[in-house]
Structure formats: structure tokens, C-alpha cells
Amino acid sequence: MTDYLKKAHGNWVDGDRFFNREKEQKLILERFREGAHILLTAQRRMGKTSLVREIKRQLTVSGEAYAIFVDLEESFTPADAIAEISLATREFNGVFDKVKGLFANTLKELTESVEKISAGDFDITLRAGVSESNWQKKGDDLFKILSELDKPVFLAIDELPILINRMLKGQDFKITEERREITDKFMSWLRKNAQTHKGQVRLILSGSIGLEPVLMQAGLSANKNVFPPFELKPWSHSTAIDCLNALANNYQITFDDGVCEKICENLGVCIPNHIQLFFNLLHESAQYMEKNTISIKDVERVYSQEMLSVHSQVELDHYEERLKLVLGEDKYTLALDLLTEVAVTGKLNKKGIEMFSVFYRTRLEEDALTVIREIIFVLEHDGYLESSPNGYIYISKLLCEWWKARYENFYTVIAERGIKK
Q: Taking the model in full, what pTM does it have?
């Protein structure tokens, strides 16, 4: 583990900005070498994409495999996914040359020589060569090419759940039979190719929303059975403290006694992104005050004035955005209500759930209690809440207090709404 660490900037890190996760890297590489597929699961901001990209980097450096990373966040259809996977092979010239052969007829419409097509024109043309009618055939042929290479393929598909969610719900967030059929066809296609080429093409699936809740909403959970889950857990306090010290060493910052422990205490759960965010704000504050020592008072001030304020809103808004993406407008409104209830009162118990189901029974098209169960499953799966003897509570102290600071002044707890059964 490094003694010096640069700040993280952007949505993912690798190389000299990647910290820890040696155990997870080892376990994932073991599965890869055994020919297994993986569904990477975790709470928000746990570093799934960074971990996958770091493993890709290591495999590329060692030459052990063709490590291909595909981001489907901007994809909307199965055809888009096939095009993106095809284009992602361009990192390996020999592989890309074979993939281009799948689109020879389409490319000839632009020029007689594939090699003379500019990168921009090629991307557009290739995407045009995958359609609603041929994506399965193109996808099958693509997997066959990858399976016949001289080395195994590490195929990392990021944000697959976002694509599946869009395919299922469209822009109106409604699951129709037609959308469900298309989604089922795509997931069945992916499962078939994962099984057919297992050992040679090894998939790792990840995303900023959970795949299981999305598939469950449409009754398609069986489609993920070929992808065993691998949970990426929060850092321990000792690992978080090591990270903070490595960051401090790199930027010539000195911590007073107890500072790192106080940071971990304020966060509650040591999510890597939140550790980095907290340090960044502390470092910027120290620079502004022209000092290089951080005290416990600094931690308390930055936590209350920065971490829980609009200054951290961009980072923490991610939790709301992804939740809305999964649930749609109506269920998202109820989810916000439930999360704010937990933040303000400290829990959501059986009595509270019953009161919410009565309050929302005329506000939803579906049975309110069924919807609440679905929402709670999503909130548990994606790391917002966990079950306790007294009811559901927040996993992250930071998220709980941020949510409370943002919404408490505009919120009426469910017990005070005058609900009559």
C-alpha cells in the first residue's frame, strides 16, 4: 500500500490515484483466471468503476489477456450496446481488424477501403450497421471473434443496469410488455453468449445502480443467474486512515492526534469517495487559511459547514439522481418521503410503513404497500438503508445527516400528518 497518494479528480481513478483493494483485486483476478463471470455489486460511490479499470490496466500491462472496457451509460438499445462493445476493441489492432469485418458491407457504402475511413466516420458508420433487426446476429458474431483470439478476453461492461433500466421503462418510466420483451431478449442473448463462450470471454458487469432491483421490477431476475455477485464493501476505519495519511503525506499536511479517527466517526461508513471528498475540502480549507496542520476543530467545522452544505451537493446529488432513474417520478417521490422520515426521526418501523401505505393509497396507481416494499428493497440493495431491530436506518451517517440538513425544514413526519385509516 502506497505512503503517498494524489487526490482523485473525476468519476474514477487508476494508477497512482488508486488506493487499496488489493484483496478484491486478487479475488477478482482469481475468478477471472478460473474462467468465471462476475456481477460487481456495492453501495454508491464505492469505487466499482475504478476497481474494474485498475484490473483492466494490470491485465493490459501484463499482456495476460485482452482487457476491454465498455461504458453503456449513453446507450439506449441493444444495437447501441453491440456497437459500443465493437468500438471498444479498437485498443487492440489485431482484434479490431477482425471486428471491422462484421461491418464490411456497411463500410463499403462510405468507401472502398476500410483503412481510409476517419475515426469519426467509422464510429458513425459502424453504429449505423447495427440495427433492431440484426443486433443479435452481429452480437453473436462479435462474441465468436472474441472467443477465438489467442488470449482470454476480460470484457468489463459498465453501466449495464442503466441501459437495462432505459430499455424497460423508456422516458415515461413505464414497464410495458413490449419493453419487457425486448429487455428479456437482450438479457437472454447476453446470458447465452456468456455461457457459450465461458472460459474464453469472461464478463464483469457493474454500474452505478443495482442490476437486481431493475430486473426484479420486470420479473426478469433469472437472467442474471449466470453472473455470480461479488460485493465490494466499504473500507475499514484502518484502511480509511491509511488513505488519509497517504493523501496528507503527498500534500505536506500534518494531522493533529485523533483527526483521522474523527473523520471516520463523522462519516460513519468509510466509502472511498467520501473519504476523498472530506480530505479535499480539508486541504482546500487549510490552503485558504495558509496553514499545513489540520485539527479536530477543523474537521468539525468543515464537516458541518462544507460536507453537509450545498458545497457537497454535486457529489451527494448522485444518490438522488440514480434513485429517480430506477424508480420513476411517482415512486421516487415516495422514496424521498421514506428517506427523509428516517433522517428526521432516526428510523422507519412497521407502524411508520403502515401509515405511509395509508397516506399514499390514493396517490399511486399500484398498491401502496407493495410499492413501499419494492422501494425498500431498492434502498437496501443500493446501500441507503439497512434493517435494524428498531426498523430501517441509514447505513451512512454522512448521507443521513446530509439528507436531514437538506430536507428537515420542509418536512412533516408521518405521525403528524393526521392520517386516518
A: 0.88
